[in-house]
Amino acid sequence: MSVDGETLNVYGAQAEKYATFADGIADDPHLARFITDIVPGGRVLDLGCGPGTAAALMAQAGLAVDATDAVPEMVDMATAAHPGVTAWIATFDDIAGVDLYDGIWANFSLLHAPRHEMPVHLAALRSALRPGGRFHLGMKTGNEERRDALGRLYTYYEADELSGLLNAAGFTPRGQWTGADAGLDGTVAPWVVIAADG
Predict the structure, then answer these.
(1) Please, what is the end-to-end C-alpha distance for the chain in angstroms?
(2) Is residue 7 classed as helix, strand or coil in its secondary structure?
(3) What pLDDT, in 10s, does the model give residues 119-164?
(4) Residues 6+ apart with CB under 8 A from 36
(5) How far is CA 96 from CA 90, 125, 186, in A?
(6) What whole-number distance in Å separates Cα of residue 62 and Cα of residue 189?
(7) Is the separation of the CB atoms in 148 and 183 below 8 Å?
(8) Considering only CA atoms, which of 131, 99, 102, 119 is closest in space to residue 169?
(9) Nearest 5°: CA angle at 141, between 137 and 144?
């Protein structure tokens, strides 16, 4: 597993700015749908939680939330600002276990994983998801691996490739949405969100 130090450093240095940027998740229809799809009181994982904004909204909705991020500054923010959220430092490789979660929210986090590692990460997440659980995946679309203007390493996928990877890992994609938004670096980029069942 290769954690890209430059990417982590960018997020650490810009944690406060990113937290302000992430506040927009409160109006995200994909998050609202994810929360509604989880059984009442269900346990969910926010993978790559950032400052914990989405995790807090899940907790406010009555879900039991585990939140992980590889950036210490992000975990500190998620823990300090959001009662009901259990957050800790972890990389994608640290996710293990079987039938732990009713839902997993991977919202634009796995795009920082190298392409050759994605099948391994998806298989581990599928194992951690209970049968019938909900999986949310948000990724930027394209077909390359490169750094953005801030120096963060991104791996881009087309929607069909992601659906194939999800199927291979044992997920069943059931919904797909596309759009384009400006990121932390100010660049407008296309994205895809896929909802899948475990």
Answers:
(1) 24
(2) helix
(3) 999 999 999 999 999 999 999 999 999 999 999 999 999 999 999 9
(4) none
(5) 11, 8, 34
(6) 33
(7) yes
(8) 119
(9) 120
How many whole angstroms separate alpha carbon 164 and alpha carbon 183?
26
Q: Is the pLDDT of residue 1 over 50?
A: no
User: What is d(CA 131, CA 8) in angstroms, rounded to the nearest whole number?
Assistant: 33
* Helices (H) then strands (E): counts for the chain: 7, 9
Geometric angle at alpha carbon 87, from 85 and 91, rounded to 5°: 145
| 3 state DSSP class of 172 | strand
Extract long-range pairs of 26-33: CB within 8 Å, 24+ residues apart. Answer: 26/53, 26/57, 28/54, 30/107, 30/136, 30/138, 30/177, 30/193, 30/195, 31/57, 31/58, 31/105, 31/107, 33/195
Task: Please give the structure tokens belonging to residue 150.
Answer: 């801030």
